[in-house]
Amino acid sequence: MLTSLEYYKRKHDANAGEAKESLPLDEAIIKSVNSLLLSKHRYKSMTPANVAEAVTKAIFNYNFANGIAFDSIISYAKKWIQRNLFTPEQILKQMDLHGGTLNYEGITILNKIEPSYYNGDKQRYRDRLLCTPACLKRVAKHLESAGSTLCPFHSYMTPFGEAIEFDYAKAMRLIIDAFGLSDVGRERAIYVTAISAILEPE
What torsion, rounded to 10 degrees, do the Cα atoms 63, 64, 66, 72 define? Predict the structure, then answer.
């Protein structure tokens, strides 16, 4: 009898503590999963890679949270990828490096893939993985403005076509800083050899 009373007393105290704590749902889920991983030796003996894979599979399972969170989970994952991997700056960089291979039209075509996932709902364009060409153009404008401050230049026409002339003092400072030669330059002279080339039209 005393044993039963002690059991229900501990259970009551635990429930009262949980009610008093009243964590937000996201923090409560994290706490529950962390407690679950420590509750059984089977889980504690799993490798970190296997634990990570199992937790990830559970989160991306459509039945997680009775299915109401699936679209939100996918949306949140896409936002993370866009902020950390497929950033507008990185896409613009690759567009510059690869010329016409990657352009605004190609980005537009890739953006048409996502709405087709939603069973014919062509109007669902929110939370896309890749930013739009309009977004890229806005970022490109800001980058060009920042670049003109760091390393001003102006373009002009020559008999051989368009040419670009930089502010040589700021351009050299930018190159020296980019190669980490600022401290070296305080100890000894830095010699820079300029090589110019003129491409004649075919």
Answer: -110
